[in-house]
Amino acid sequence: MDKLLIKLMNSFGISGKEDEVREVIKERLNEINQDMQEDDIGNVIVKLGSGETKIMLCTHMDSVGFIVNHIDDDGMIRVSNIGNFKKEDISHSFIRFDNGTLGKIYTSVEGEFVDIGVNEKEDALKKVSEGDMASLVGPYLSVGDNNVISPLLHNKVGCYILLKLIEYVKVENVELDFVFASQGEIGGIGARIAANNINPDYCIIVGTENATNADKRKNNINIDGGPVLKIMDSSLIMHKDIKDILENCAKLSGINLQYSISTGRSEGELVHKERIGIRTGEIAVPCRYKYSASEMVSINDIEDTIKVLKQLENFKETT
Amino acid sequence: MEDLDLFKEICEAHAPSGREDWLYSIIEDNFKQFGDITISKLNNMYIHKEGKTSSKLMIMSHADEVFLMVKEITKEGFIKFKGLGIDAKSLVGQEVIIHGKENVSGVVALKYDCGYKGKNKVTMEDLYIETGFCTEKLKSFVKIGDYVTLDKKMLELLNGNVSCKSIDNRASISAMYVCAQELKNVNPDLDVYFVCSCQEEVGHRGAKMASYEVKPDIAVAIDVTFDGGILGDGDRENKLGAGPVICIGPNIHTKLRNRIIQTADKYNIPYQVEVEPGNTGTDAWDIQTAEGGIPTLLISIPIKYMHTSVEMVNLKDIKNTGRLLARFIQELKEDELEGLFCF
Amino acid sequence: MLLEKLSNCIGPSGYEEEIRDVIKNELYTFTDDVDVDRMGNVIVHSDGNDNSSPKIMIASHMDERGLIITSYNDDGTLKFSTLGKMEKNALPCKTVLIGNKKVHGVIGIKPIHLQDKSERDKNISYDDMCIDIGASSKDECRKVIALGDFAVFDNSFSKFGDNLVKGKALDNRIGCSILLELLKEKYECNLYGVFYVQGNIDKRGIYTAAYNIKPDIIIDLDTINSTDGEGVPEYLKTNELTGGPVIPFNMEEAIFNRDIVKSIRNKADNMGIVYKRSISAKDTSKLKQDRLPINNCKTAAVLIPCKHMDYNISICSLMDYESTLTLIKSYLSDL
């Protein structure tokens, strides 16, 4: 598996505290001699090409995580969620705090607790304080044909895709604005600000989408089935122009798309309402067990998504 | 009502959230006599009637209707769908149109074990659409993500009541038409923007975009509301035929609301009032906090059986809503605004 | 198209006036031997040349499922019940025509936004629905609609999908249409065509018609619920659309005469007409031998698959129509 993806997965990045992952992204951009900008909220923006049309490609750097609310007398650390996910899906997982302290998380009716292996509050306070942030952490497993299991694939996969695109795309007569957005998991905040500043003609969000899990009753999205166009979720309806553009890109690159209608939320939810309205849509990598401690994606899907989006380098307005 | 034909045409037309542009040509044909028309990339439609001054008033009615969306095509050729805003209980035996490569006629049916054993309530999962085509043929013109809308013709009932699909919110667009007609030969102070907004039914999304575009000094949202009858909301006093319903509550600018009530009294236009303690669930909610804050009004047309194919409205209410707004716009002078807006 | 004309006619169980007139007028275009009995059944006699042939009666009920007005609500809306068994879940939000004056009405329910959790979680009942004609008070409503007025659904007939048709009342206007076409031909046998009333209320008309005619053979030409919906278990998939007519040996406890059934089936086999054998006939009206007020009558049934026959709108296959018509024509020609 690509070292860049591994590096991204190992970097700490929770909504509001994305320093480590931002550094990995900036370091990579420096390695390929690519200029970038950082705005006030922490978005990293790369502008490639120039032309009459502006297309913004956006993905968020942050992942879901936890924030410390209170430390009990017995040294157990009460946390609450940052981002929207089910606590049952992450119980008994490995945890890392932003300062490197390790532990595990346990959820019960009483609440969510991180155990860092101490028995007294004072010992806990030596390592951790209220307001500290924690993230899932763990090794990755290569399984099946070309699949990987790991925590935090959402949304490091998105960052990986944009970094690869920046490296390989050869832009003709269009301006492509790549945005690594902050605070995506708590409502697409960075994305909105970037969209307001850039004011693009089109905005394509790159993310992940729930694929059929072991519980079988979910949707018709499969890993290794191709990139997913999120036609509609509870926050965004894909604009028909974005659908046409992405379908065209897929046709040119000979890749099959899947279509999803779901109840999730998209980072584009605030972007499309920005200014006079921005044509927005999301293309996603299918991901099993999304927002759990061990998500699964197919590397083939990641590579196919890159191939589809690379076609944007030749973008021409059709009307 | 003279323009029942237009009302009938726009109700029977199909424009689900995201494809309000399917209504565009009818709106353009009928509203172009009132002002300049533009349509944004996200399908907000603006009709601009220039006024004497540069103080702007925006009237907004959402153009989209509730809909279903194709989620899956089974191997027997049945369509499973996701519903947006429509009660599953109202759908069994309903005729629909699937907007694929071609428009396909369909009928919604109940899954086998549901109807037979008559157990629990009907949910979207228990429903499917059949088209009479086998799956191969169907897949050649329908795919996942295609829109499905109700197929219904308008019906005239007693006392000027009519029933059709999409009275929410085509009745408001019709009221805007009446207002524009009444103002046709009038030159008001205010610069008027009639806006047919997009994607209200999925979260009043068009409201913010339109407010950014127009930057109005005052906004009036027109939508529909529940009647107070046996199958309506017993806490409201709204009655079909008794006039437009003026909303009272924190979402509504108090002085502006009193001003429009004054206008109604002056011209003897019948009206009703209703109270909304918080989110009105309409475009008015997002308009009020857009830009630097916009003084907002909400005028609603009472209807029965909301979000079903047999929504019912009284034509007198549409006419009176249009008339009330026209008189309000006509009367409002630019120099009044400061006084109205200061706290 | 004849089927279209019949489907769009009005005639719910117990109130078959309009459809009776339409059928009579159709019959008068080719025969004079038309009679109406005391219950309202239309009886046509087509005497062939063969004096030794048995009396054969082919019967098709002309009524459809509909509604009947039971009381007035205080706000000017109406309470109703059904004529014939209907799928209750298919009632909300349909358009109806009430009475001989064909007053328009809609069946309304409470908007979903206003239903509390207990209302959302339960099955729909008659108390949750009303018929609304736009009247503003009980008094106004009383002047327009009388208690006991019947109502039918306002769905028009049209082509549908792949060689299918949809419309109201396909149960059993499709049977009536086939019977009318059958009667246009001349046969050797002694044929009675009966368009009977109240078919959906336990087939009451057929027994009185049989009493008057005293046939040797009765073939009931009716519809059967087609089982190609979603979620049907494999063992119940017995009568799909386009699978041809259903020619059963029995419909649950209603046992038919095996010889007659076999001879119809043999005819179908000889002609290469596809047909279905077994059926699931829950909740359907059946022709019961023990209720026939005559002796020595052999009964059989030929049933046309009809999807959603207990909804406001149902679906049939034109292929099934043609094959059923052809089959019975040849069967009668042989007698």
Summarize this structure briefly.
The complex is a heterotrimer of chains A (319), B (343) and C (335). With 319 residues, chain A is α+β, with helices and mostly antiparallel strands.
Q: Could you describe the 3D structure shown?
A:
The complex is a heterotrimer of chains A (319), B (343) and C (335). Chain A has 319 residues and is α+β, with helices and mostly antiparallel strands. Chain A has helices at residues 3-10, 19-31, 121-127, 153-168, 189-198, 240-253, 299-310; strands at residues 37-38, 44-48, 53-60, 65-71, 77-82, 93-97, 102-108, 111-115, 133-136, 141-143, 147-150, 174-181, 202-210, 228-232, 258-261, 279-287, 295-298. Chain A has two domains: 3-63 and 152-314, Zn peptidases (Aminopeptidase); 65-136, Elongation Factor Tu (Ef-tu), domain 3 (Beta Barrel). In chain A, the strands form three sheets. In chain A, strands 1-2-12-3-13-16-14-15 form an eight-stranded mixed sheet, sandwiched between helices. A six-stranded antiparallel β-barrel of chain A has the order 4-5-8-7-6-9. Chain B contains ten helices and 17 strands. Chain B folds into two domains: 4-65 and 165-341, Zn peptidases (Aminopeptidase); 67-150, Elongation Factor Tu (Ef-tu), domain 3 (Beta Barrel), CATH 2.40.30. Chain B is an alpha+beta fold. Chain C is an alpha+beta fold and 335 residues long. Helix content of chain C is 26%, strand content 26%. Chain C has helices at residues 2-8, 17-28, 117-121, 138-144, 170-183, 204-213, 258-271, 318-334; strands at 34-36, 42-46, 55-61, 66-72, 78-83, 95-98, 103-109, 129-132, 150-153, 158-160, 164-167, 190-196, 217-225, 250-251, 254-255, 298-306, 314-317. Chain C is globular and about 65 Å long. The two termini of chain C are 29 Å apart. Chains in contact: A-B, B-C. The interface between B and C is large, with 58 and 62 residues.
